[in-house]
Amino acid sequence: MKKHNFSAGPCILPQSVLKQASEAVVNFNDLDLSLIEISHRSADFVAVMEKARNLVLELMDLEGKGYSVLFLQGGASLEFLMVPYNVMTIGGKAAYLDTGTWSSKAIKEAKILGEVEVVASSKDKNYSYIPKDYDVPSGVDYVHCTSNNTIFGTQIKEFPKTEAPLVCDMSSDIFSRKLDFTQFDLIYAGAQKNMGPAGTTLVVVKDEILGKTGRKIPSMLDYQVHISKDSMFNTPSVFPVYVSMLTLDWLKSLGGIEEIEKRNVEKAQLLYNEIDRNPLFKGAAATEDRSNMNVTFLLTDGSRKEEFDAICKAKGINGINGHRSVGGYRASIYNAMPIESVEVLVEIMKSL
Ligand SMILES: *Cc1c(COP(=O)(O)O)cnc(C)c1O
Questions:
Q1: Is residue 32 annotated as part of the catalytic site, yes or no?
Q2: Average pLDDT over residues 180-203
Q3: Which CATH number fits domain 257-351: 3.30.420.40, 3.40.50.620, 3.20.20.60, 3.90.1150.10?
């Protein structure tokens, strides 16, 4: 029996996608060749890349709005550096919201290239909430935020309002909820949290913000180089791009972001309701900032831990140990997680 996979990343993917992907590894498009042994410049793979790109724009409702879509490598972690390389002017300054480990890593990289103003931070309470009363300074090159804090289980509901380009690390909640994506000028996400396998990073960038830094950018770090080569400046990670395309196609066939958001809310409510009802558990994040993707919670009676863990194991629950910086548990309930798996976890919690 397939386990109930609550892993924070790499993430659960739809069963139908895994099946299609495995078939393509053996025989892609009836070519009698594997997807991973053909040229990335072959018509068959170019079509995959194009379809993936178009699905991103369609699902985000960004078609014809001046955005380019890239599938790069190096993870979201390389974007921490690529963003300032491409958007921070020489001698310039950027504003960052510090809402967790990933935000602070992004800040560290940006500081290599320029001045960073941290407009607000929730570090004082181990990132258990999203700061709200802050002023975004004017005259900055861009403002950076992290939409969902994978480790701490918090999620931004109201994004910073700014005249400057808004940059968002959406690694762990991309395509999970309806947003006005035009409020962002640059979105990036490592595929492996909610879109596909590890090995590719999605970047959606508004063309007009590029080319203004005055900086000499190494080719591999230059968004404009990758845009001009349709994400094929060097060999793209063909398999992760293909599987991401399949997952986006799966999402579209379900009814897109609107439909998946309904399901995601339902799953999250089910779990949070039990956390709030059951005196043995308590949520780790501030209630109003709770994430619908990564549900963090603690046992209030440590002596029941062995029992809880043992039942979880027996029932096929995988990957709910909390990150070491929070402790307790983290149930990641990404797009592909069926509500039935959440029900199994909730039943176990109820039985305790
Ligand atoms: C996992 C994660 C990252 C790091 O992603 P890599 O692809 O491993 O570099 C960055 N930001 C967020 C929000 C994440 O969840």
A1: no
A2: 98
A3: 3.90.1150.10
